[in-house]
């Protein structure tokens, strides 16, 4: 399954979850919006951080989501690569494997 297909599947899963727990879901969305607004760090910088954390936590759905968010925020491939380098530094071998997935997801999403 491609990263584009996995992204669509994740969005569908989240729609189903949102219908089941609308208040909880809305609270999470509100927190996410507040946390990702421009402040001392830009939204773009925060997405790079989120992608690095997704790699370190080994959350493939999070990686795909934040790779797409990095693309929409205007992150370059070089910026993503450097953020992934830091994620590898902090998470070792498993981070290296998931960073490879993150780079592939960013590349696929940016091509499509």
Automatic annotation (TrEMBL):
It holds the Pfam family CMD. InterPro entries: AhpD-like, AhpD_core, CMD-like. Residues 22-103 form the Carboxymuconolactone decarboxylase-like domain. GO terms for molecular function: peroxiredoxin activity. Gene3D superfamilies: AhpD-like. PANTHER family: ALKYL HYDROPEROXIDE REDUCTASE AHPD, BLR3452 PROTEIN. This is Putative 4-carboxymuconolactone decarboxylase. It comes from Sagittula stellata (strain ATCC 700073 / DSM 11524 / E-37).
């Amino acid at each position: 399954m491609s990263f584009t297909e996995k992204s669509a599947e994740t969005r569908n899963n989240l729609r189903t979850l949102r219908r089941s727990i609308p208040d909880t879901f809305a609270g999470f969305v509100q927190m996410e919006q507040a946390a990702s607004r421009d402040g001392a760090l830009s939204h773009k910088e925060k997405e790079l951080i989120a992608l690095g954390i997704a790699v370190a936590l080994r959350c493939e759905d999070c990686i795909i989501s934040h790779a797409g968010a990095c693309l929409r925020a205007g992150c370059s491939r070089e910026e993503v690569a450097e953020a992934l380098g830091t994620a590898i530094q902090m998470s070792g071998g498993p981070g290296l494997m998931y960073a490879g997935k993150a780079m592939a997801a960013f590349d696929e999403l940016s091509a499509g």
